[in-house]
Amino acid sequence: MNRKTLVLPAVIGLLTPVLAACGATDSAGGSGDAIVVGTTDQFAASEQAPAPIDPAYAYDVGTWNILRQTVQTLLVQPRGDGEPEPEAASSCSFTDTGNERYACTLRDGLKFANGDPITAEDVKFSIDRARSLKADSGVFALLSTIDLVETKGDNEVIFHLNSPDVTLPYKLSTPVAGIVNPDDYDKDRLRDGFQVDGSGPYTLDAEVENNELVRAVFTKNPNYKGQLDPKNDKVELRSFASADAMGDALKSGDIDLMTRTMTPEQITELSAAADSDIDVIESAGLEIRYLAFNTDASPVRSTAVRRAMAEVVDRGELVSKVYGSQAEPLFSLVPAGITGHSNSFFNKYGEPNVAKAKSTLEAAGVTAPVKLTLHYTTDHYGSATKTEFELLKKQLDDSGLFDVTIKGAPWSTFRPAEQEGEYAVYGMGWFPDFPDADNYLAPFLDKDNFLGSPYANSEIRSKLIPESRRAADRLSASESLAGIQDIVADDVPILPLWQGNQYVAARDDVTGAEYALNAASTLQLWELGRGRSD
């Protein structure tokens, strides 16, 4: 059969995908072998991060994709785009006009996978635990507007907030708010290793080698009660050392589907194949990439140095030479397609301008060339990251204003070093916790931000972020959100680079691949099944 590329449209907010290729047949996923999914995500337990998949610690797209299969939350983000929907809860709503009191009623008969009943006290324990442990990943900050968790009887949970927060339902749909069994999780310490015990649609059997999770087998949980409808009995997530190895496994039939992170070359090759049993699904993505700055470190403690970099970097060249049509330049922390997006960096700096950057440095008394080291992770965002940083180095060096060295490190050492403030400039990516502008701003700029950034702006933290969270109609928050983005463009604690589409490649007997990723890049393994192809 002919392979077809599926390009899914994006508008203000992302549309739910519509199947437009082969494989749209009755699912036979309830029987047969496990569906095998490939990823280049690496899952390692280390001295710095001994508890990589504890919900109170995990805070990257890979570990969250393990938790979303196994640990149930009160609400869940839908398969496409839209408001969070009840999951472990039967209903949730704000109960006051000020959006400061939020109440959820649990579904009847909820159980953990081991058969233990779930009560409101278990929900309170789980969320209070994440808030009190304050893991250095920074994930607890998602729950920062919760002041008190109250229970009424066995089935009602009430959240009292310290300030209005209309984004709370989204936050309660993320793994940090996952419900865990107090018998398995200590309230005072993280749970080391790769065991997960929850009430999600699957249980986890982890195969570990040298403190790394190499294979995760998800088996349908017979005690699961929620709104998800698994189309299979078993899914295996297999970690590969490289995108090339993962691609070879897909072509040979050793795996059925691959997701992040494919290389630009793989996507182009598979999309151009005239006759193949592999389908490529493309959808508008909300992933962003950016340079982050330790604003206490020399030489980037100087705002002029950061502004000059913003005036030199050519996003258009970066995208066209490295990612092609798979990405587009980004001029704000908030990507296009999200309500509240503003092209603040373009509005301030316009097209790349070396003469303007030279004037910026001279006015601040900064002598060129400025020596910089740009750090990047070699194994977390795909192999194209190295090429991207080689081009960034060239752009900055060619200006004559900078003398750049680039250094790569595996994520297992890169992330702890970044958190410890060892890097002055470093490259990061962001997959949204939920598709709202708040989640592209607060995690970077608020107190206890996940970067551990020393940058602090009182207007953003004390006025604009709280103000934006009061607006239930997100269009009404646009003025506050634009104000935050304008301040970021002026101070440049972060330099946004590009936003990318998301891709899945699947063998054509796999059904549901068009729903394998939702708008927030959540891996939805329960959507996958097997069926005959046309």
Automatic annotation (TrEMBL):
Keyword Iron: no
PANTHER family associated with the record: PERIPLASMIC BINDING COMPONENT OF ABC TRANSPORTER, PERIPLASMIC OLIGOPEPTIDE-BINDING PROTEIN-RELATED
Name the UniProt record assigns to this protein: ABC transporter substrate-binding protein
Domain of life: Bacteria
Protein family membership: Belongs to the bacterial solute-binding protein 5 family.
Keywords assigned: Signal, Transport
PROSITE patterns: PROKAR_LIPOPROTEIN (PS51257)
InterPro entries recorded: Peptide/Ni-bd (IPR030678), SBP_5 (IPR039424), SBP_5_dom (IPR000914)
Signal peptide: 1-20
Pfam family, one: SBP_bac_5
UniProt-annotated location(s): Cell envelope
Residue stretches making up the Solute-binding protein family domain: 83-449
